[in-house]
Specification:
The protein is of the alpha/beta class and 233 residues long. Helices cover 47% and strands 10% of the residues. It has 2 domains: 157 residues, P-loop containing nucleotide triphosphate hydrolases (Rossmann fold), CATH 3.40.50; 65 residues, Helicase, Ruva Protein, domain 3 (Orthogonal Bundle). It is elongated and about 55 Å long.
């Protein structure tokens, strides 16, 4: 096999844009989404569609599936279409050769005829190659605004899961789970304080937790309410 060219390397890097190291199955608190998590962890279903509001965990699960495939020696592709829609549909060429293709933020290209046709053909190529494809968006396949009827049918080929957001208790547990993964001690008192005073979107909360972790390490201080209040004020 010839060594990879500069274009090959650039393509591989592009296919991993936005893939966070922290987005793993172990770091995902399922709440009411246990069925979706279980099926994704099994890894045998060829087509799965996830949808839900922002912060419901759809991007986390797609990225976790990519990490799991990589750990097993496979080659995943993660495409956050909200940031790649202007790149052009050529980005999809040859993806059927990957072990797993994850298409995130499908709503970003819904109604775009060129993208819809390209995605339709990608689904067919992945099926013919015996591969796996996961898709996620903020709406169901029926209400997403896809104009190409054949693509709408492809999106519902496999299981379709509506992801449910965590309640307050679940958000607290998810914050504590993420904190433990970072080697932090986040008390229930401090976690509850964050939920009451900060944005309630899980991604925003996780980003805040990361900043608090960095600040506590720099200051050599524990995460207490006075320290957190000082930082977020």
């Amino acid at each position: 096999m010839p060594p990879p060219t500069g274009a090959d390397v650039e393509r591989q890097l592009t296919l991993r844009i936005g893939l966070r190291d922290s987005a793993t199955f172990a770091n995902f608190l399922p709440g009411d989404n246990a069925a979706a998590l279980h099926l994704l962890q099994q890894g045998g279903e060829p087509f799965i569609y996830l949808w839900g509001a922002g912060g419901s965990g759809r991007s986390h699960l797609l990225q976790a599936a990519c990490h799991a495939v990589t750990a097993g020696g496979g080659s995943p592709a993660y495409l956050p279409l909200a940031g790649l829609a202007d790149t052009g549909v050529a980005m999809l060429d040859g993806l059927e050769q990957m072990s797993l293709v994850c298409l995130d933020d499908l709503q970003a290209v819904a109604g775009n005829a060129a993208w819809e046709e390209a995605l339709f053909h990608l689904y067919n190529r992945v099926r013919d190659a015996g591969g796996r494809l996961l898709a996620a968006a903020d709406a169901s396949p029926v209400t997403l605004g896809i104009q190409l009827a054949d693509l709408r049918s492809r999106l519902a080929w496999g299981p379709v899961f509506q992801l449910q957001p965590l309640d307050d208790a679940g958000k607290l547990a998810a914050l504590q789970l993420r904190a433990r993964a970072r080697g932090m001690d986040l008390s229930e008192e401090v976690g509850t304080y964050l939920l009451r005073r900060c944005p309630r979107d899980m991604q925003a909360l996780f980003e805040l937790l990361e900043r608090l972790d960095q600040a506590s390490l720099a200051a050599q201080r524990r995460l207490t309410i006075p320290f957190v209040r000082e930082l977020i004020s």
